[in-house]
Amino acid sequence: MNAVAAEPLVALVGNPNCGKTALFNLLTGSRQKIANYAGVTVERKEGRLRTASGSRVRVLDLPGAYSLRPRTPDEQITCDFVLGRLADEPRPDVVVAVVDATNLRRHLRLVLALRRLGQPVIVALNMVDLARRRGLPIDAPALGRELALPVVETVGVRAGGAQSLLDYLERQHAAPESAVADGVDAPARAGGRAAPLDEAAAVAADMASVAADQHEVERILGRLGLEGVPADTPSDRIDRFVLHPVVGPLVLSATLFLVFQAVFAWAQPFMRAITALIAALAGLIGAALPAGLLQSLLVDGVLAGAGSVLVFLPQIVLLFAFILVLEDSGYLPRAAFLLDRLMGSVGLSGRSFIPLLSSFACAVPGILAARTIPNARDRTVTILIAPLMTCSARLPVYTLLIGTFVPARTVGFGVGLQGLVLFVLYAAGVGGAFAVAWVLKRLRRANAIQPLQMELPTYHVPSLRNLGIGLLQRVEVFVRRVGTIILALMVLLWFLSSFPAPPAGYPGPAIEYSLAGRLGSLLAYLFAPIGFNWQISIALVPGLAAREVVVGALGTVYALSAAGSDVAGQVAPLIARAWTLPTAFALLAWYVFAPQCLSTLVAARRETNSWRYPAIMAGYQFALAYLAAGLTYHASRWLLALP
Amino acid sequence: MPPDRPTRPPEKTLGLEELPLHTDARIVAVEARKGHEAADLAERLAEIGFLPGERVRLLARALFGEPLAVRVGSDTFALRRSEAACVRVVALPLRVLRP
Lengths: 643, 99
Fold this sequence. Notes:
The complex is a heterodimer. By secondary structure, chain A is an alpha/beta fold. In chain A, 58% of the residues lie in helices and 6% in strands.
């Protein structure tokens, strides 16, 4: 405890999207997510760095804030911390005010507000490479003289780009008093820590001074020869198309459509290779081990279960590659701009777009990202509908069913039917979310139009390094999921599906006699009206823990139901024989709305501080899923003229 | 920028939302229309850079006229019409030459 308290505490503070997290990653060796839009970081992240002389420093990365007067839950975190309002955390010893060197006009205002707090402040002039490339005469020492604060140059996205900041922290640690620059009042330091600031005073000081600060910024920029504003930047030229009222929406639709086509078509060769590998492995084990429990556990439980989920790795990598490139380029807030009006028609704003888009990866970060939404009602609605965005865990279920039941042919213009069906399923999720938001808008008192005030950042060419790190992390997460939770659930399911063993001479497959088989036939009463057999019913249960498990669970249940295990690892041919088309379509419809996984419910509980919203969420999703699956089942039976 | 300044600036001011696309303008005032929420809105606009004296330009209007993409200083923000209406501007003569 004492050792921790003795470590100096450094906090990174700045406007949104100025590169705080990139700097944090450089300083601490962390790999926190970075992207080109405001509001990527919505939590306080902590790391440690070791200076060249070996002393340790605690580093905090805080969500971006436009001012010290918070409007959103994520800004609140930053303000509480900087103003020392947290009981469990002292105010930082040093505030690193991170500013975007290409946009000092806005970023310096926050520096002035931070300077007034009387804590030691050092300015990190970030993205200084970009500023120089644009021909801006950046002069760190001169800026330091004008601000009466130490100023260092940093490049958050380049290895070694934080060296000057590290050197400064090192010197400062050696002689702490030097951190307080000339002309700035030393803070009242109680026991080596700055005392908490009076809240009202801080707010008043901030508000009274926005305009005054702007004059001071103008003066400083004038002295540095930086007063001009860019006339027509490359970003503006791109925006003439991207934000165009007609061309813009077309570009957006084409982009999204390309993503789904690519996820389906480009991943196929890799998926076939993994399938072949797993089948070969199953063959090897089948040949090496005598038929029996161990062989069944490995082949039916591990390979047919966890292996059949691993097959979807290439698709998940591709999906994330697209998402990461879109995030890094600065396009996402533009998409939010284009969709704002549409979202407004169901009572949401463009501010909900990025949380909802994040939910295509996973609803949990999506629900967290809703912290950037200023309005409490909008935030709750966004959290409630986030799980209707098709998360990457549902991709394996979709792919398996589409790959098995939808013929692989084109519908013209090089558009594949399978990719098209996938697009329709994603669209159905979005449509469902809009419908729910619309109903919620009707149910609740409509409030005044909420402000948008969304930053449209300068476009960047996506960084290959960032993309590589992001993809590696996703692969790691996915493989770890398959190796831990999914594998464990599969082994558990295999156990439940194998025991108790049936008495000798039992006529049907052994699984019917097992615990899972009996539970499945009970659940089948509930699900038979919407076309699900007992095998599907039982597979839905572990799917609550992690949705991909459904695929593996079907693999295990069917592998154990089959007469021989010669088909292990190949779920598709089994279900192709066992299911009718309406059943397959009903299951697809079920998974568009399916009650989400437990971690989503837990995240919703944490973010809304009550069980009320997670309960509403689970309830309405179950009802929607049941309704949609039932309608699909009966409609497609009628269309196909099945009995 | 006191919201109820009695004297208006002599130039013809217009709401930012009325400005033609790609026309340079200068902010004269940022004022709340009505109510407490609106006052908060004006403050927030000031905080993100909509301050008297700053140069602004409309970069785009989305389909159906909303939202607006606005250049202020060296930033671009998306605003709704109602937000932009809080920002009073005077259009600058075309092709202002900067030293």
